[in-house]
Amino acid sequence: MDWKSRLSESTTTIEEMEQRIPLSGEERRLLGEIASIHPVRVTRHVMNLIDPEDPKDPIRKMYLPSVDELDLSGSYDTSGEAENTKALGLQHKYGPTVLLLSTNACAIYCRYCFRKRLVGLTNDEVLRHFDDAAEYITEHPEVNNVLISGGDSFMLETPTLLRMLHRLSAIPHLRFIRFGTKTPVSLPSRIIGDRRLLDAFAEQNGDAAKPRIYVFTHVNHPREIGSESRLAVRRLNEAGVTVSCQSVLLRGVNDDANVLVDLMNGLVSAGIVPYYLFQCRPVSRVRKSFQIPILRGIEILEQAQMRLPGPAKRFKYAMSHRVGKIEILGRSGSNGLFRLHEARDAELTGRIFIRPLGSRDGWLPDDLDPGLDV
Question: Is residue 296's pLDDT more than 50?
Fold first, then answer.
């Protein structure tokens, strides 16, 4: 079965969800209210991973709506994406990197999504004129890589992806191109069955004169790494594509050292490079249910890293803040130790700073000034 047919089998309504997950009348009403605001889509591949008898099942929590989404505390743009938008669908926050929001569609709608304002809802922030974006990149020689994301870039038709690839590859100062996609674990058939895409990736990566292709995926729990997902990753690896993972530390999903150990070891054994473990952003309808305190995150991470081999602990614990990508280095008492891994103000990149943290603090203030500490 082709990937579009498999996608069409997805659960997209509360009524379809209830065929597998028992709900009370009140739950049905409240979840219907939530689904009317933030839509539901769960592929059959992922629905089959959920234990319907376990209300605390981590896969269920990530992908099926819950009443916690009624809590509006937080923000819909926690990292200042609007401030970094240079043209519709094009963000340029860090000098070497341009981000393209290529689509608002995903194969699966994660309930913790930091682009909850956009995904599955509106095209108002999505790239509409790719050639204009390519021209912007051409005019900015400091840009050496492009991240094509969304939504999920692999929800675009293969001819569209190949056209993007061809146009970007003609820009002389681009060294590599990244595709952001969750399909290795949400819809692996998108990759396994697309020989045209895989052959194009292999040809591109076999030409030293062309920008190299990387895929960045998103896995948060070891149960997501099944046989089909492993095969999808293997197909990408065979095409010369390095697959890296950006995970998120999520309450009730992987906020446990044992789970993190299994996750990181599972990624490496599947051919995926652990890249980031992100602090969950304080997004509206997400913060209450998924975010844990930073101090707790540091504790969990330290426990896990003591048991991980080198290849499985190459990831950085970080947050995508308005000022930049902040690496969370550790703690001293109730203080957190941080480093600006990437900064909107390039002069601050690499800056190490200390901030006091309360036992419930899950984020740093929006008006953070990392320049105060040396």
Answer: yes
Interatomic CA distance for residues 339 and 334, integer angstroms: 17
DSSP letter string over 41-65? -B-HHHHTT--TT-TT-HHHHHHS-
Q: Give the separation between CA 181 and CA 187, rounded to whole angstroms.
A: 10
312-343 confidence digits (pLDDT tens): 999 999 999 999 999 999 999 999 999 999 99
77 within domain boundaries: no
Q: What is the pLDDT of residues 337-348, one digit of tens each?
A: 999 999 999 999
> E strand or H helix at 192, and its extent?
helix 189-192
Q: Let me know: does 142 contact 95? Beta carbons within 8 Å.
A: yes
pTM of the shown model: 0.95
Per residue in 209-255, pLDDT (tens digit) is: 999 999 999 999 999 999 999 999 999 999 999 999 999 999 999 99
Nearest to 191 by CA among 155, 164, 165: 155
pLDDT for 43-94, tens place per residue? 999 999 999 999 999 999 999 999 999 999 999 998 889 999 999 899 999 9
Q: What is the CA radius of gyration of the chain?
A: 20
User: Residue 100: which CATH number?
Assistant: 3.20.20.70
Q: What are the respective helix, strand and coil percentages of the chain, to the nearest 5?
A: 35, 20, 45
| Closest C-alpha among 280, 287, 296, 281 to residue 336 | 296
Angle among Cα 145, 152, 262 to the nearest 5 degrees reads 90
Q: How does DSSP assign 266-281, residue by residue?
A: HHHHTTEEEEEEEEPP
Domain with 258 in it: 82-372
In this structure, the answer to whether residues 341 and 268 fall within a common structural domain is yes
Residue 88 and residue 58 share a domain = no
Q: Work out how many domains the chain is built from and give that number.
A: 2
User: What are the DSSP calls for 326-357, one per residue?
Assistant: EEEEEEETTEEEEEEEEESSGGGTT-EEEEE-
